[in-house]
Amino acid sequence: MSKTIEIVVTPTGQTQVQTKGFTGTECRQASQFIEQALGQRTSEQLTAEFHQQASQQQSNQQHQ
Amino acid sequence: MSHIVEIKTEVRDEVAIGSACQRLKLDPPTRGTVKLFSSEATGVIVNLPGWRYPTVFDTRSGEARFDTYNGHWGKQAQLDRFLQAYGVEKTKLEARKKGHTVTEQSLADGSIKLTVSVGGAA
User: Fold this and answer.
1) A15:B87 CB<8 A
2) Is the CB of A4 inside 8 Å of chain B's CB atoms?
3) Parent domain of A39
4) Minimal CA–CA distance to A16: which of B108, B113, B122, B18?
5) Mind listing the pLDDT tens digit for each residue in B73-113?
6) Does a structural domain hold residue B77?
7) Domain tally, chain B
């Protein structure tokens, strides 16, 4: 999956930044430069992709 | 891992302000001090369509100063439109600085979606 950062700027100028295709905490680092440049964070939400990967990592650790 | 972050836009970049003005076909911004109805404001000055007084952006705080007398001297929609243009231009500027490719798409609700391909050519 290609790595992309999607930024939606609403008609009132609010922005939503979403990362796609990153692994681990890479996504936070990848979009940090845009988030800091645009303004103040008002919320952060981890997506299903994050939770799926986190549970896979946990199950891999249990089997080792 | 993926995440979604909501951001309140702060107008701090004079170059992006200039690009936003160009995008909306407004006069180029100037820097200085202007009189509003009962006060003065210093910063980057933008004249929005139909507004009696200019909007002044303090690029250190990211805040805008203006006087529209509750919409009688200028419509909020014009400032919103400017903030959207600023957000788009600032994102493109920062992505290109990093060497990423950016594509732009207008959405049905009036939003603008930018897709930054990380690692792509500028």
Assistant:
1) yes
2) yes
3) 4-63
4) B113
5) 999 999 999 999 999 999 999 999 999 999 999 999 999 99
6) yes
7) 1
**Count of domains observed in chain A:** 1
Predicted complex ipTM: 0.90
The whole domain housing B31 covers 14-117
pLDDT by 10s per residue, chain A, length 64: 689 999 999 999 999 999 988 877 788 888 899 999 999 889 888 876 666 655 665 666 555 5
Q: Which residue of B has its CA nearest to A57?
A: B1
Dist CA A39 CA A14 (whole Å): 10
Kindly identify which residue of chain B lies nearest to residue A28, measuring between CA atoms. Answer: B3
Cβ contact (<8 Å) for A9 and B87? yes
**What CA–CA distance (Å, rounded) separates A26 from A31?**
9
Question: Rounded to 5 degrees, what are φ and ψ at B49?
Answer: -60, 130
